Automatic annotation (TrEMBL):
PROSITE patterns: NEL (PS52053)
Any one Pfam family match given in the protein's UniProt record, by short name: NEL
Any Gene Ontology CC annotation: extracellular region
Annotated protein name in UniProt: E3 ligase-like protein (Putative virulence factor)
Organism of provenance: Bradyrhizobium macuxiense
Active site location: 132 (glycyl thioester intermediate)
Signal peptide location: none
Family to which this protein belongs: Belongs to the LRR-containing bacterial E3 ligase family.
Length: 334
């Protein structure tokens, strides 16, 4: 099989020796065989899983009222899967980190009183315990993003815009890392995709201030991500952030849009009206000029492609002004 072929071994148990041999061959310079995707094993099926409240009690030592509340959630959809997830989370390498344990405990306190957040956690836990420990860590990271979105939706950051902007930067950095990790996966011929993505998150956690990411992972060695890869990724993310974060915040991050709409409703409506107006003559004028500059006036494909670019440009300009105004009114700036 040639390099255009894919061998999918995800879910198949491979010994460490087999993985090592395949990796040595597949990731060696000059390799021209297929791309092989695999996953680290280690998932376990418990014949009699421990009850959810019992596992919650492990994390919330002495908090009897919160544990009692969790007694009432055991029949909710996904509760048992979440119990298995929590149980295995205690056996991850991050468990030794006190701040991590406190973050999990806080999640449990919040989920006990917020049904929507709890439902989200239960859904995200589905399938998380089927493979390795790092899948558990990856799932927990996803839950922290869900928690942030829920907090924003419920107004927790309406008067804490400086913190919200910082959270937005973290989201931007994670999205940039996701694209970088995807390219790294494409460059490898023998790879566990999850391990590569997690490696960039965990190993750049401190350097990129990825606050809610778990502090460690178990199988970094099988990600085949080097220190040079990490340094290059850090530089690329910083450069992309400097060039694109303002536009991302103004037009690409829904939580920010929701907060602005709530705390500055008049300015938000005014901006929406300006956008609608700008998509008329302003849009057409820019499109005509851009097509003429490129000598593509009658090119239908060019009209579609440039039209999308100009639409985004206008949105970034107008909504960017709104973002600056909202921040400026509160003594803040990007």
């Amino acid at each position: 099989m040639g390099p255009d072929c894919v061998v999918d071994l995800v879910g198949n148990p491979l010994s460490e020796r087999v993985r090592t041999n395949l990796a040595a061959a597949g990731n060696a310079p000059g390799y021209t065989g297929p791309h092989v995707y695999f996953s680290i094993g280690g998932g376990s099926e418990q014949a009699q899983p421990r009850p959810l409240p019992e596992i919650v009690a492990d994390w919330l030592d002495g908090e009897t009222e919160v544990v009692a509340a969790w007694q009432t959630f055991t029949d909710e959809p996904g509760a048992q899967e979440y119990a298995g997830f929590l149980d295995r989370l205690q056996h991850t390498v991050s468990y030794s980190n006190g701040a991590f344990r406190q973050a999990v405990a806080d999640d449990l306190r919040q989920a006990a009183i917020r049904a929507r957040l709890r439902k989200k956690y239960f859904r995200l836990a589905l399938g998380a315990s089927e493979t390795c420990e790092d899948r558990i860590t990856w799932t927990w990271n996803g839950m922290q993003t869900a928690r942030l979105e829920a907090d924003v939706k419920e107004g927790a950051y309406d008067e804490r815009l400086d913190e919200l902007v910082q959270h937005g930067r973290v989201v931007f950095r994670l999205k940039a890392l996701e694209a970088i990790a995807h390219e790294k996966v494409r460059s490898l011929s023998f790879v566990d995709e999850l391990e590569v993505h997690l490696a960039y998150q965990v190993k750049l956690r401190e350097r990129l201030e990825l606050r809610h990411i778990a502090p460690d992972m178990r199988f970094f060695d099988v990600a085949y991500v080097t220190e040079d890869d990490l340094s290059a990724a850090e530089t690329q993310v910083r450069n992309e952030e400097a060039a694109g974060f303002a536009d991302f915040l103004a037009t690409g991050w829904i939580p920010w849009d929701k907060v602005v709409r709530r705390i500055a409703p008049d300015a938000y409506e005014e901006t929406r009206d300006r956008l609608i107006d700008a998509m008329g003559e302003e849009f057409e004028s820019r499109l005509r000029q851009r097509l003429a500059d490129l000598d593509l006036t009658d090119d239908a494909d060019a009209k579609l492609q440039l039209g999308a670019v100009i639409t985004k440009e206008i949105a970034c300009e107008i909504k960017g002004e709104l973002t600056s105004r909202v921040l400026g009114d509160r003594g803040l700036a990007l």
